[in-house]
Design brief:
CATH superfamily of the largest domain: Hypothetical protein af1432
Order of helices and strands: HEHEEHEHEEEEEEEEHHHHHHHHHH
Radius of gyration: 26 Å
Number of strands: 12
Distance between the termini: 49 Å
Number of domains: 3
Shape: globular
Strand order of the largest sheet: 5-6-7-12-8-11-9-10
Strand content: 15-25%
Helix content: 40-55%
Bound molecules: fe (ii) ion
Structural class: alpha+beta
CATH topology of the largest domain: Hypothetical protein af1432
Oligomer: single chain
Length: about 475
């Protein structure tokens, strides 16, 4: 048991906890009466088994939650679980808490570590704290708690203890409340209040940007600080100083970054927590494939770029390019279910092994639909499902023919085959660019859609000219 050192991977959560701590630290030591106040301690459990998946964590979390409810019905109040950790806020004295969590640890042997942070005493009625729900994460719980403090407690406590509450905060450049990063996008949470988040967002060039209306009362502003964005299929351009606003409604619009873009993003519908969760899930999914197949991560990035260029040559609308980009990045996600021995086999697969390998299209669709249950992912799942169909009907899994195959899947199939050929695989040596292009050409009208092949040849040339990493 570790009670002093903060493990690195819970740093963010602890930083968040500190921001709460900063808000209420003046109360500590002034109110010793634990009966009338609410004592919080941050406990973070870490799991030994990094292979354990999210649903297992969720399951363990739920078990622990039931255990807590059974054993201390009036005591523990807030509970948070994230991908690789569980954070519990528990009342009571230090010794009581240690005893209680030892009990929990004994019950669940795969919890290896316990981290005890500062005790924080909050004057808050237990009935005012909501129980967590599935999908709640640390930020959401924290903001619920802080909201309660803002509304009911802060002013009252500030006057009672004659405390100067911080009405004016100074945020130094580079200091953010939170941030989340992936290759194409970085989000920095600059400030937040009850129903307001102010985010700085960086997006790389040549990316689709989807902006939707949303729920009643929704208001969002995207103010371009730097860079260029196109819309209306490239006919109109937005520059620094221009902005996009979105209110409640069903409309959605698709934009494309022409250069690297920095946005100031203000939203009345706090998304940071959910966006962070979604991006982390995506990264986790992609890392899963990278663990088994070293090439795949870069392969996915190249595919995204080549798919976009090909789709643009064919005049596809931005919405479809957006879906294609997602599908390209995650097209082989189903391979997480294929045994690593098969993926890394340095020889041709047997008939039986191929049968398993081919299942990755079906598994990919399932994984996407299981993880992202919104309608936006239905199309993406379908593209992934069809990415090994062949124009002449000899592909899998459904044996679709010609235009029965989604255009996005027909594009992905050419781009995927090309990229696979020019990079060495466990079972085959890399071909030269010229040999790979000749191979694609020879399959025009057979394996590949002729229109896509024509567009791909132009796109590939542009890709080379732009000096990408092929
Ligand atoms: Fe595939």
């Amino acid at each position: 048991m570790n009670t002093n050192n903060s493990p690195k991977n819970i740093e963010t959560s602890i930083n968040n906890m500190y921001s709460l701590y900063e808000k209420v630290k003046h109360i500590i030591n002034k109110n010793k009466n634990e009966e009338s106040s609410f004592s919080l301690t941050l406990f973070s459990f870490e799991f030994d088994d990094i292979e354990t998946n999210y649903s297992t964590y969720l399951d363990i979390s739920k078990k622990i939650l039931s255990f807590i409810i059974e054993n201390k019905p009036k005591k523990v109040s807030l509970f948070n679980f994230e991908k690789d950790k569980i954070i519990i806020f528990a009342p009571g004295s230090g010794t009581e808490r240690q005893k209680f969590f030892k009990k929990v640890l004994n019950k669940y042997t795969n919890i290896s570590d316990i981290f005890v942070d500062k005790n924080i005493v909050l004057k808050i009625k237990k009935s005012e704290v909501e129980w967590p729900r599935d999908g709640d994460n640390f930020d959401q719980l924290l903001s619920k708690l802080v909201d309660k403090l803002d509304e009911n407690n802060c002013n009252h406590l500030a006057s009672k203890f004659n405390i100067n509450s911080n009405n004016i905060m100074i945020n130094k450049s580079g200091e953010y409340l939170n941030n989340v990063k992936k290759t194409s996008t970085q989000l920095y949470l600059i400030a937040k209040n009850n129903n307001l988040e102010i985010i700085k967002q960086n997006i790389i060039a040549e990316k689709s940007l989807q902006i939707r209306g949303g729920k009643p009362g929704n208001f969002e502003l995207f103010y371009i600080l730097d860079g260029k964005i196109s819309y209306a299929e490239g006919e109109k351009i937005l520059n620094a100083g221009d902005s996009i606003t979105a209110r409640c409604g069903k409309e959605e619009k698709y934009f494309k970054t022409l250069t690297e873009v920095t946005l100031l993003y203000i939203t009345s519908n706090p998304i940071f927590a959910s966006e962070q969760k979604r991006i982390n899930e995506l990264l986790a999914l992609n890392n899963k494939i990278a663990e088994t197949d070293h090439e795949t991560n870069q392969h996915c990035n190249r595919l995204q770029k080549l798919s976009r260029l090909t789709a643009e040559e064919m005049g596809l609308e931005e919405k479809r390019i957006f879906n294609l980009g997602f599908a390209s990045f995650l097209h082989d996600i189903g391979k997480v279910k294929v045994p690593a021995t098969l993926l890394q086999k340095p020889a041709k697969l047997t008939k039986e092994e191929w049968k398993i390998m081919k299942k990755h299209t079906e598994w990919g669709k399932e994984i996407i639909l299981d993880n992202f249950s919104t309608e936006y992912f239905d199309k993406i799942a379908e593209i992934i499902y069809q990415h090994h169909e062949r124009y002449n009907g000899e592909g899998y899994p459904q044996g679709l023919k010609g235009n029965q195959i989604l255009i996005e899947a027909r594009i992905l199939s050419v781009v995927d085959a090309y990229d696979a050929m020019i990079y060495e695989r466990p079972y085959q040596k890399a071909l030269t660019r010229e040999a790979a292009l000749a191979e694609i050409k020879s399959e025009k009208g057979k394996q590949f859609c002729p229109d896509v092949v024509d567009a791909f040849f132009k796109a590939e040339k542009i890709y080379q000219q732009r000096n990408h990493d092929i």
